Amino acid sequence: RVQTNTRTPLFSQQTLFKMRSIKQIPHKTSAAIATKQLIQPPTTTTTTTTTTQSASLLKHSFLRNRGKVSMLRAVLLAFFVNSALGGSSNNVPSLDKPFQSSFEHLPHVPCVSLFHRNGRVGCGTLGRSTMTGRLLHWSTVVSSEDGSNSVANVPPYVVVIDERDYSNDNVDKIVSYAVSATEVGGSKYDDENKAGAGVLRGILVLNSTAVDEVSSSKRRLDGDESYYSPEPQTPQGENTPSEQISVGINHAWNSNGDGLTNRDMYGIPTAYIADSSVASYLYSVSLEQSKTLVKKSQHGKLDEDDIFPAIVAEYDYYMGPDNQNAKTCLSWVDKDDVWRPKCLPLGGNSVWGVAGSDTEQNEDGGDDENAKPIVMLATSIDSTSMFHDASPGANTAASNIIALLMAAKLIGASVPVSTIDGLSKRIAFGFFQGESYGFVGSRSFLRDVAYPGFECDEDSEVPAVAKNTNGERACLYPLRPTLSFRGVKNIVGMISVDQVGVLQTEKNLYVHGGGNVVQNDDGTSAFLAEVLAGLSTDDYTVSASAEQGDDDGNNDDEYPLPPSPLTSLVKLSEGAVGGAVLAGYDQTFAEKSFYHSHLDSNKTTPVSMESIAASATILARAAVASAYDNGDLDAETSAAYATNLIPDLDPTDESLMELANCLLTDGNCDLLLKHGKTEQQNSKQRTGVDLGLGVALGTPPNYYISVYDATNGQSFVQIGNAWYGAYTKDDKKYGEKNTDTFLVRASLLETGIYGLLNNYLGQGDAASEMEEADR
Fold it and tell me: Which 8-state DSSP code applies to residue 333?
């Protein structure tokens, strides 16, 4: 049985909107320069208002801006081209033929602002006015060690920098130089110095494959920081908004990280240029204009003829005023005293499923002391980067999803349902959304099922589809489109999988956690780690991590646990329940992983199908071994039993290769579309409402979690002709019309995982039929 946990808002455990009477304003863009919208607006107008939220609910939230009037602006970047030869009658401006006073849309991926309880991170302009500057190569506008780049009286500029050089340290140098250059320039550019912008007006980050071989990116590739990550060295650990919900917060898992993603770059709009031809052109322009500027400045003071004409970039990325945080952004009230939040939460849908027959499920919501304990296999399904819409997540997301889905397929195809039902424990799978931002998906799910367990308000439990009175149940407030998760009881352990596509050591996987992290359980955590370590294949070795943590005994959390869904279980259970993590790294992430970078792609560092196939085999065997154990905690016997049942997955398996193509290369593939269309039709047949296909994964795939609204995964309830994010009013009863129903428009990735997991686990029925035939 497979169900989606559709309420995964990064904002909080509770639903964001209590929809009533105020129209949601669709996304708008600046008509002057925008040629398309960054975010597709909802096709149906919804009605929204707020639910009162306490500060504690904002604890680990990040929120992304969008919109123009009632929401923060996130509009497109353009650059202005001005020719030394004057104007042209040609009405089609182009990069290689500049025209006087003409705009050319610049294809790009923006760095936007995110808000958390203590402030903001990310990029944006200082005010509603555009920020404009000439393109200059970054090496020209930083102070060099030999003093050759002395601060000069420079005009407003936009820094052009190769992606390999875009780091926290280099941004420090760029900002430091700009502060000094602004002081030298005095009031010369005050008219253009919008809201105190200074001479630095933005940053353009270029695709490194397009720049010249002698560029600094090549030097960096040969250096220690060749596989740079913008995340902190302690991801979701020390000095991050998620610090309080991680285990072993001081451990530097991400040795190549420098924390740029946690930097507040208010006033420094930034964008990434992926197109190689455009990037190459802009790089050449920045070098030429830098040479000219340096040459002129060496001969004395610059005059207007030296400053213009030039090719400049213009940003229109207002993300709200300074000193904002999640609470102020969400609680914004207009002058007419109407609540109009200036941002949207991040969120989406997690997917979970349980192997075996429906007779093994207990979904009545009651306490069943005889319910079998559950071992859950879990992973994240999202990734992130400095440029959210370029988050390919090949190793940090795709490799995990593929490995866990193929593990489910191995179990479904190899173990009859009758055998699964006869095991001592049930096997569950969890694919959690939003793990990159405070483990949102896993924390949301685990809070509902056990910690402390979901409670529907009195008289709020209703049929999920009003006309199906004996069907699935749902809750109006707090809104849950399904209550099937109540059948998931007594999770006694978890096996998480992380980054198994790019290995730190060839043909070697590592086990983290176990009894080192949780010592207060019945020994299950240590047992799960021991089972994994005993499941090496002919080609791949599984080793216990060499990490021992600090041994001073002063802090129970000092043994580090890699960021994964297991972190949520350990923290929420207060150390009473744990498990293990199967990972492609030992004490630090793999050197070539590009952790949470826009370069974490299959093209940059190819993912190993052999490693993923081995991981899938090990995970499937570990699941069966864990469920087989009857309490003796005999890892060797359990592992042998599972190895006997589960065959090795062939790295060239047709299903594996098809899934890998979808999740690593073409997110618009037929496989995901097929399952998306199936869920669309099933939902339409069940509810009578066609919400259309969910948002595509894209080509190349993008694993950023996305904003959370009715178009992007937010569950809601239709009562009469209105949609509500939660419902408490008495003047209109749910169920008065047969059209009343709960709805959600999940993404194609989420519906794809849902459909594939359902199909793969359902193969156990076929295995049962074959077993009968053999008899």
Answer: B
Torsion angle, CA of 226/230/231/234, rounded to 10 degrees? 50
DSSP class of residue 535? -
The contacts found for 675-683 with CB under 8 angstroms, 24 or more apart, are 675/748, 675/751, 675/752, 675/754, 675/755, 675/756, 676/748, 676/751, 676/752, 676/755, 678/751, 678/755, 679/746, 679/751, 679/754, 679/755, 680/751, 683/743
311 — alpha (psi -120 to 50), left (phi > 0) or beta? beta
Backbone phi and psi for residue 171, each to the nearest 5 degrees, phi listed first: -65, -40
Q: Which residues pair with 133 in a beta bridge?
A: 313
544: Cα separation from own chain's centroid = 28
CA-nearest of 499, 401, 487 to 756 is 401
Closest CA to 564 of 603, 621, 624, 511: 511
* pTM for the predicted model, two decimal places: 0.86
Which of 302, 569, 287, 309 is CA-nearest to residue 428?
A: 569
Distance CA 664, CA 59 (A): 33
Do residues 497 and 379 lie in contact, with contact meaning Cβ atoms separated by under 8 Å?
A: yes
List the strands of the sheet with 491-498, edge to edge: 2-9, 347-354, 426-432, 374-380, 491-498, 579-583, 508-513, 541-544
Q: Which of 733, 703, 774 is nearest to 435 (CA)?
A: 703
- The per-residue pLDDT for 420 is 95
Residue 7 parent element (H or E): strand 2-9
DSSP E strands in 59-171: the ranges are 63-64, 78-81, 102-105, 109-111, 113-116, 119-124, 131-137, 157-162
**Which tokens go with 744?**
């959600």
pLDDT tens digit string along 91-127? 333 444 444 445 567 889 999 999 998 899 999 998 8
